[in-house]
UniProtKB/TrEMBL annotation:
Keywords: 2Fe-2S, Iron, Iron-sulfur, Metal-binding, Oxidoreductase. Residues 2-78 form the 2Fe-2S ferredoxin-type domain. GO terms for molecular function: 2 iron, 2 sulfur cluster binding; metal ion binding; oxidoreductase activity. The keyword Iron-sulfur applies. It comes from Litoreibacter ponti. It holds the Pfam family Fer2_2. This is Carbon-monoxide dehydrogenase small subunit. The keyword Transferase does not apply. InterPro entries: 2Fe-2S-bd, 2Fe-2S-bd_dom_sf, 2Fe-2S_ferredoxin-like_sf, 2Fe-2S_ferredoxin-type, Beta-grasp_dom_sf, Diverse_Oxidoreductases. Gene3D superfamilies: 3.10.20.30, [2Fe-2S]-binding domain (1.10.150.120).
Length: 161
């Protein structure tokens, strides 16, 4: 077991993990942060996206020991300080960008990374950025609308697929 220390959602945490423990497993099983979903174990679906040192990563592709000393953000840390939904989460709700909700944490975390790097993405930019995330329910149309709305853009012109 390797001792680990990191900052998760602004709070210092520590724990220990075997060298082959995936970050997704460490977050869910050791730290009880179950918002990070495991959907495929093959880096295909994006349900496990978190931010490590400000960069969106699929947590099933990293070992927990790789984030020793890092700053990690999960879906649990995305709400506003008062507990209300942040602008991205609210846009997902307002524009029906979720259905079953399984992919939603990864989609929200990916959207946050996109909007940090590109505050006013085009519809094509959003669709391209989400290529690593799979949703089996919504068909992506409302997810794209939600992300565009979260960026402050008019979504009325976005055509249905």
């Amino acid at each position: 077991m390797t001792k680990l220390s990191m900052t998760i959602n602004g709070k210092a945490v520590s724990g220990s993990a075997e060298g082959n423990t995936l970050l997704s497993t460490f977050l869910r099983e050791d730290l009880h942060l179950t918002g990070t979903h495991i959907g495929c174990d093959t880096s295909q679906c994006g349900a496990c996206v978190v931010h490590v040192n400000g960069k969106a990563v699929k947590s099933c592709t990293m070992f927990a020991v790789e984030v020793d000393g890092a700053d990690v953000a999960t879906i649990e840390g995305q709400a506003n300080a008062d507990g209300s939904l942040n602008v991205i989460q609210q846009a997902f709700q307002d524009h029906h960008g979720l259905q079953c909700g399984f992919c939603t944490p990864g989609m929200v975390m990916s959207a946050a990374a996109l909007l940090k790097d590109n505050p006013k993405p085009s519809e094509a930019d959003v669709r391209e950025y989400l290529e690593g995330n799979i949703c089996r329910c919504t068909g992506y149309h409302n997810i794209v609308k939600a992300i565009m709305a979260a960026s402050g853009q008019d979504v009325s012109a976005i055509a249905a697929e």
